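ok posting inputs for the cobalamin job
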Amino acid sequence: MKILFINFNIGSTPGINNGLAILSAILKKKGHKVDLIFVCEDLDYGFDLRRIEKDITGLAPDMIGISLMETQIKYASSFLKTLRNYYKGFVICGGPYPSMDPEGCLSLEGVDAVCVGEGEDAMVEVAEALESGKDYKNIRNLWFRFSDGSVIKNRLRPFKDLNDLPAEDKELFDLDKILPLKNYQLEAMLGRGCIYQCSYCINRSYLDRYKELCDRPVTIKDYVRVKDAKVAINEIKETIARHPKIKKIAFIDDNFIMYDNFLEDFFTRYKDQIALPFMCNVNPASYNLSKAKLLKEAGCDDIRFGIESGSERVKKEILKRNIPNRSVINAFKINNEVGIMTSSFNMIGLPTESKEEIFETLKLNAAIAPDTVKLMTFYPFRNTPIYDLCEKLKLIDYDKKFELDNYDTFSCLKFPPEHHLFLRKIQTAFNWYMNAFFYNDVSAEYDKMIKHIEGLAEEEWGRFDFYSADEEISRKMRKKGLTHYSKFVNRSLAVKFPSRHFN
Ligand code: B12
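and the output
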């Protein structure tokens, strides 16, 4: 049958949707035809409902599958409101948002089914059932809504062994256009799941849903899986053969070093058969010198560490992420020793977080001095423990949340206006605060600038041209060869200059 996937990737850098890439591979293997509409301004496909209608009508699919993240619901729902005027086929949604809030997703206009959790077998079964006119109501992982309003919620099948899956169909996406936008860095995800239970991440609730809805007991060991080294290497090699300009690999698994028995075998093959520099995500709690040496030896030149907060209280009580600052400092020390670049990822605007605690985050970043620093404003994902906390504290402004594409603009929590203004100033000028927290020659100049912006009222702040000021002062610092952070490329990213990444 003809299946059309739709992926909204608006207001965010384009990336391959690994979920759709694997579903496409499996469906094609079973003889189905698969197309994709990738709605992404950076790839010249903006949110244009008439264009989408024309393309859907032209392709005339038997089934439409929409992959959804929570930040894209507004696009999906306004698309769905128009879809039923011209499309009568089967519509199914899957991905992180439907898995976390299946009832909410099923209530969107025009949706026949949602996939809860992993979708490989469910998608094949529903395509086969629809094609042959068989009953599909009992397919595991799928929840249905019928025209009379009735709903069927099926149970889940256990997690799949990733080695039983074919290679992802990455070519479903226009890699020739996506790769140059990512500086020819290929993103690869070799496993699934995470051993940590942070309150703001979907991993914990994802596993809880499986524990609740699977017939047999499911543990974290079943959830955290990785492909065999040989399988993973072959998949990367095939993509590089098709796109020889690829110059770096980004392993986007939640914590690359958690796959204990995999890394040595994988790296031996990687050095031998791929030999490109790579970056990966690492949780500072599980990092040590021997892992650092192993990574460095294999070609790792950059590690992204989730710091999230510099406040021990916020980490422990709110984020349920018991990683003391000393472990963070140690991880960065190790990387400096072995010579691997570092990026840190942070959040502000957390429930109950004070101004002082936000400064602790910026001070910790100044102390560890990563090559790049990402700072995002907190966004609560449905069905996560921190979302429940925000609800309990009556903090969520649901309309604002619905409007957000991204989390580098403003907070959707109901804070007093002065706290919102403070958060916006920090989100924009966090690099200035970090420079001030160096407490050295550079600091005095940034201190002056900070005093100035702190005195600005809402409207004045709205008119303040931060980016020109930042560029001007950074140019001066660069001329003098003084280490400092300046904003680069996007609002949530600051780069340490002189830079090992950029000139
Ligand atoms: C790779 C990745 C990206 C990539 C690719 C995004 C994409 N479209 O998939 C990039 C870098 C572009 C990206 C961007 C963003 N991401 Co992101 N990303 C991830 C990451 C690290 C891995 C996702 C993945 O590949 N998983 C493996 C695949 C196999 O699983 P899967 O996608 O869930 O797919 C399976 C099922 O869901 C299902 N399925 C999926 N789609 C469909 C469709 C149908 C029809 C069916 C039946 C089934 C089905 O079947 C698949 C196979 O089993 C996750 C973290 C994580 N651990 O998952 C965050 C994550 C998905 N990202 C998240 C977010 C919020 C973002 C951003 C908003 C970040 C930002 N500030 O810009 C943007 C939004 C992009 C967008 N499209 O709107 C959140 C989503 C939370 C939520 N509840 O929605 C996650 C969960 C991280 C988190 N904070 O917890 N991301």
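notes: Residues 7, 9, 12-13, 15, 17-20, 22-23, 65-67, 69-72, 92-97, 99-100, 115, 118-120, 123, 189, 192, 201-202, 252, 254, 381, 406-407 surround cobalamin (CB under 6 Å). The first strand starts at residue 2 and ends at 8.
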